Amino acid sequence: MEPTPARPTRHSLIDDAQGLAFGSFMASVGVLLLTHLGLVTGQTAGLALLIAYATGWGFGPVFFVVNLPFYWLGYRRLGLAFMIKSFVAVAGLSVLVSWLPAQLQFGAVHPAVGAVLVGCLSGSALLALFRHGASLGGIGIVALYLQDATGFRAGWTQLIFDACLFALALFVRDWQAVAWSALGALVLNLVIALNHRRDRYIA
């Protein structure tokens, strides 16, 4: 007779706090390296970066504002706890990415190495946030909402949005930067796809 598996222990408030702090910090380092290299990324972070590049505004405030319309959908689709944690994570990233440049500077970084490192940093940040019931972007929420409302697959919505974003990036970045950015996005998505497994990680 096989033993009954133990019920998973839910994260405590302290667990969630360190997970959100870790995710926000790692993501902010990723954004700092991304902007150092002049690269872009997908989702709402990518949209905020394009706006920042085109206008000269700071990424932190732009990213915070860009995400504001998505919290209501997040509340409706995933609940109050998700909305609050996501707000804290986004606010933390917005503050950290504005503070970090005075504390951390990069020298010469090859775009290929930088793109892979950004993908790894951002992927680990998102994994931590997902594991603690939070997110950094609103496009995924919109994608899930549209899937529920129309049946259109969430993955396709995100893919279409990112494809449009990278096409727009060609107007503010050169094609080499966009190509290296695509490498970083690929690494990020592989990190998430290979490690965010609900059938394995249930706490």
UniProtKB/TrEMBL annotation:
It comes from the Bacteria. The chain crosses the membrane at residues 20-39, 45-66, 78-100, 112-130, 177-194. GO terms for cellular component: plasma membrane. InterPro entries: UPF0750_membrane, YitT. Its main location: membrane. It is a multi-pass membrane protein. Keywords: Cell membrane, Membrane, Transmembrane, Transmembrane helix. It is found in: Cell membrane. PANTHER family: UPF0750 MEMBRANE PROTEIN YITT, UPF0750 MEMBRANE PROTEIN YITT-RELATED. This is YitT family protein. It comes from Paracoccus limosus.
